[in-house]
Amino acid sequence: MGRDGAGARERKRHGRHYTPATLAGFLAGRVAARIDSTGPVRVLDPACGSGELLFAIRDALAGRLPGTPVELVGYDLDPAGLALARRRAARSGVEAEWRQSDFLADCAELPAESFDAVIANPPYVRTQQLGGAAAQALRGQFGLRGRIDLTHPFVAALPRLMAPGGVLGLLCANRFLTTKAGANLRALLLADLTPVELYDLGDTKLFEAAVLPAVTIAVRGAVRGDCRYVSVYEEEAGIAPDPESAGEPTADPGTVHPEIADPRIAGGEIADVGIAGGKGRDPGAAGSEGADLETAGSEGAGEIGAVRAVLPPRRDGSFERGPTRPGPQRRGAGQSPAGRAADARGGSRARGPDSCAGTANEERELFAALNGTTDAMVWRQGRRFAVTVGELAMEPGAAAASVGWRMSRVGHDDWLRGVSERMWRTFGDLGRIRVGIKTNADKVFIAAHWGDPADEPELLRDLITHHDLRPWWIDRSRRTRVLYPYELTRTHRVPVDLARYPRTAAYLERHREMLTARGYLTGAGREWFEHWVPQRPHLWRTPKVVFPDISDRPRFALDRSGAVVNGDCYWISLADLGGDAGAEDMACLMMGVANSSLGLRYYDAVCGNRLYSGRRRWITQYVSRLPLPDPGTPAALAIMRRVRELVAESEPGAAGQAELDELVDRAFAG
Ligand SMILES: C[S@@+](CC[C@H](N)C(=O)[O-])C[C@H]1O[C@@H](n2cnc3c(N)ncnc32)[C@H](O)[C@@H]1O
């Protein structure tokens, strides 16, 4: 691997993913806009790396409060990052205190209320990578619960250090907005702080990241008024109707990947750092040596430097709104159906007005839109992004933190209230939503063509993967099968006696080395030839609703074949819905809602947020929140009937889908 590859590995190992200058400028501008002080302004970055955020806040404050002394304090574990920060500071005549120390260990020694602002892009390292003991210690020290990542203790430490009215500018993974594990962070941001601005930067790729970024601005103490909430996601005009576009799935964020869950492995290197900067550092900015540490000569760095020069924040921290380009309108807004269809066919990628030019311009327009008060459409590297402006919808009481955050918008909220009023139950109320099997040795267990074990076909089961799923039906043309060495009559995993299957035993024996490398399995007292997660063997034969974990659109289908479901999909067994004819009706109702336009709109408003390129995750915690109408109503009965027809058709057409959409709308209409 080239220099870049090695650099990326190093960054990942040590969590050294720095914020690009433009994003640092935006974050700093938003923080500075809320600081009013005549005396010295003290600013802390608890994990400062090469100091990008501190340099940015200094610039922003110099613009907003000229002549006001600014005292910068940066902590970091990494001497190389700090050395770079020092050199940059010396070169540009910036005074700052750089402390090489473990902030989490040493923060208790800092006096309370000693900072007017904190600006941070803390390391994002998940519990699994932290290791159980370290995570437990951090939970105890910072009063956290459940699954944590390193962002949580960093944020937990901050309110005490902030003066009343002090401002926090936080850049972190946007997952906390919607995931169960994010409840810690949501609670922290609501306890002693008040969030005042939230930017879900979605799939803008403002910098390269394993996860998508969000910016939160919060103030210490109570603040009147709503929290502004802006999100940016690629417009969906280009969504391909091809289910293959769902790409390779990743593990459920709520699922501990077994390789990582194994404590002996978990103690190892830090393998996942979410907020990854790297590209677009600003070698042109005063004192910047970004190229040393990051992507030397990275494309676009110069352009981004130019943006910074063109676009200083105003005194109030906002940016000048970019000129409006006579570009395409927001999908659906004033466009004819024919135009929308053409749009969808052409996709957004190919038609960006400036798709090859003007990255600096694009960034300027993006940041201007983020600062704007109305929805906007911006272009970025040939892709079209919808900037949506609303407010943070606050649930009352404890639910404010326990329930994922969503955007509230005029008009939209009335619709949501109407659906909620007519909701009978949620999916989660009715049955378990399970992830599929995880073998952790797919090369051994999963194949379309089998040798020896094919002679003992009772252990080979059809396997449904995300490739096979369409809305309503399952395309089994791939014929993928899984070697499933379990007794199918047992409710819990009971591995078969391999002596009864000599050809399969010989096959597995040939792969013993690979299988026993999963030491966590045998370490847990299990057989070396087992799957890591085989799920419930006796349930496969019962019909089930199956859907892929990652997909741009819902693809819920009914399986009656007895196939096993792979770990890139989720499933709901009809046994959990009662197992009788009523269960199939209920399954049809669920599929009807899930695969409808209303279901998708509800998902976007309430359940989850999107990944790159419009992909969505359809995991338990999101799907369980989807609504169901009362199954006894005529509208619900009509949905069930229509879904039965759709399931029976080999390739349901658009007309059937449109009719279903209408029925679902009717079921939730007043
Ligand atoms: C995501 S980087 C952000 C750096 C910088 N603030 C920026 O935005 O460019 C996180 C930084 O946290 C540092 N770090 C990790 N654990 C730390 C700890 N316990 N105390 C202080 N710094 C830490 C890493 O060395 C890394 O430089």
Q: Can you tag this structure with a few keywords?
A:
670 residues; alpha/beta; Rossmann fold; 2 domains; 4-stranded antiparallel beta sheet; 27 helices; 23 strands; globular; binds S-adenosylmethionine
Describe this structure in words.
The structure is a single chain. The chain has 670 residues and is an alpha/beta fold. It has 2 domains: 3-232 and 274-318, Vaccinia Virus protein VP39 (Rossmann fold), CATH 3.40.50.150; 434-668, no CATH class. Helices cover 35% and strands 17% of the residues. The protein contains 27 helices and 23 strands. The strands form 5 sheets. Strands 1, 2, 3, 4, 5, 6, 7, 8, 9, 10 and 11 form an 11-stranded mixed sheet that branches. Strands 13-21-17-19 form a 4-stranded antiparallel sheet, with helices on one face. Strands 14-16-15-20 form a 4-stranded mixed sheet. The longest helix has 15 residues, at 634-648. The protein starts with a helix and ends with a helix. It binds S-adenosylmethionine.
- Total strands: the figure is 23
CATH level 4 superfamily of the largest domain: Vaccinia Virus protein VP39
Assembly annotation: single chain
Question: What name does the CATH topology of the largest domain carry?
Answer: Rossmann fold
User: Share of helix among residues?
Assistant: 25-40%
Count up the domains: 2
Bound small-molecule species: S-adenosylmethionine
